[in-house]
Amino acid sequence: MRVVIAGAGAVGRSVAAELLENGHEVLLIDRDPTKVSVERVPEAEWLLADACEITSLDEAALERCQVVIAASGDDKVNLVVSLLAKTEYGVPRVVARVNHPANEWLFNDSWGVDVAVSTPRLMSALVEEAVSVGDLVRLMRFSQGEANLVELTLPEGAALAGTRVGEVAWPQDTALVTIIRGSRVMVPDPDDALAAGDELLFVAAGSQEAELERLLTVRPQEQP
Predict the structure, then answer these.
(1) Are strands 67-70 and 184-186 parallel, antiparallel or unpaired?
(2) How is domain 132-217 classified at the architecture level of CATH?
(3) pLDDT at position 183
(4) Given CB 3.0 to 4.6 Å as the disulfide criterion, which of 28, 43, 112, 134 pairs with 8?
(5) Could you say which residues form the signal peptide (predicted)?
(6) Which sequence spans correspond to the domains of the chain?
(7) Regions of the chain short of the pLDDT cut 70
């Protein structure tokens, strides 16, 4: 897979190193000569250019990319790169870094963003996930389809404890994607029984989150 990363700061270089280790082809773009440090990620391609300019993106051959990552420290730059990648080059997957939470609402499909990654939100979500049982925690937002990656740890005494996955009437536009049980990561099977303490990861429409939380936390005596 060919990936172009706009922004060769610490975040961009770290992502590039991970992708290269997984066997992908990576091109890093930055207009700041001090950030174009080939020796830091020697396996990557490098381009000293302004990723907000069409000529630069032509040189980067964005039309041959499967993924573009807008990883600069400037939200305006990340939005422009995302919009150009999607509208001018038809890049299938555009991931954008959100630096300031107040700007998060802009990072959607109107700006060409498929996945918005907000570092402050992610850090706070991971803190919540570590200490919360029975509370739905939003880990990531997917702009296409307005879906979110959410997590909930099934509390003691939940009505669904002991219920098989295939027997649960999940809310509409909701998919259980992973069960984390202790050190195990389980791909959900219809015959798997849920247990208290399971960390459940869902992709769900934002409009269904409240209903999903209610379903997972209701206790037997609360059922109608």
Answers:
(1) unpaired
(2) 2-Layer Sandwich (3.30)
(3) 82
(4) 28
(5) none
(6) 2-118, 132-217
(7) 119-134, 143-145, 220-224
